[in-house]
Amino acid sequence: MGVRWLNTQCSVVLYEFATAADENPDVIGWAPGAGSVLIECKLSRSDFLRDATKTVRSNPRAGMGHRRYYLCPRDLIQLNDVPPKWGLLWATKGQVIVKREARGHPERNLAAEVRFLSSMLRRAQIRIGTRPLSEWLRGENRFEAKRGLSPTKDRVFRG
Predict the structure, then answer these.
(1) Which of 69, 79, 125, 128 could form a disulfide with 136, with the two C-beta atoms 3.0–4.6 Å apart?
(2) How far is the C-alpha of 71 from the C-alpha of 74, rounded, in Å?
(3) In sequence order, which residues have a C-beta less than 8 Å from that of residue 99 and are 6 or more positions away?
């Protein structure tokens, strides 16, 4: 539900990935001009209380996400339980109810976000035809088409 909700706000949304980072968000997304949005999903009160003991919770500068939310079943977490600047989302009947909007954490760990994104891109190794995504994004296929070359034909790299 958090992924669907965040997809309405962000152009890139990643979820349930584990990396070597200090923080592995349940859901994180990036919105053009608005920065990153992190969602921590909690299904039990004990899980929520355990989350508060993480290093990244005691030091907000170490955490990811310009805006940060907890998502939980209705009434599991109350507004007075939520740390300052955090938002609260309740999942009920297939919908996400915004109980409190998150306020910005300008002191977030941007380096951790970049490492997280880099890790995801390395894992993806996406290819378009036989070409790596990076070549496709640079528009090399378009330039080759103008020169009359097949974009899928293998060529020797000369670096």
Answers:
(1) 128
(2) 9
(3) 79, 87, 88, 89, 90
Q: What is the CA radius of gyration of the chain?
A: 20
* Local structure of 139: helix, strand or coil: coil
Q: Which two tokens stand for residue 23?
A: 């923080």
Q: Per residue of the chain (159 residues), what is the pLDDT tens digit?
A: 999 999 999 988 988 776 666 678 899 999 888 789 999 999 999 999 999 898 888 888 888 999 999 999 999 999 999 998 999 999 999 999 999 999 987 788 888 888 888 777 777 666 666 766 667 666 655 555 555 555 544 444 444
Q: Tokens 């910005």 sit at which residue?
A: 104
The Cα–Cα gap between 64 and 54 comes to 13
One-letter amino acid of 82:
V
pTM value is: 0.76
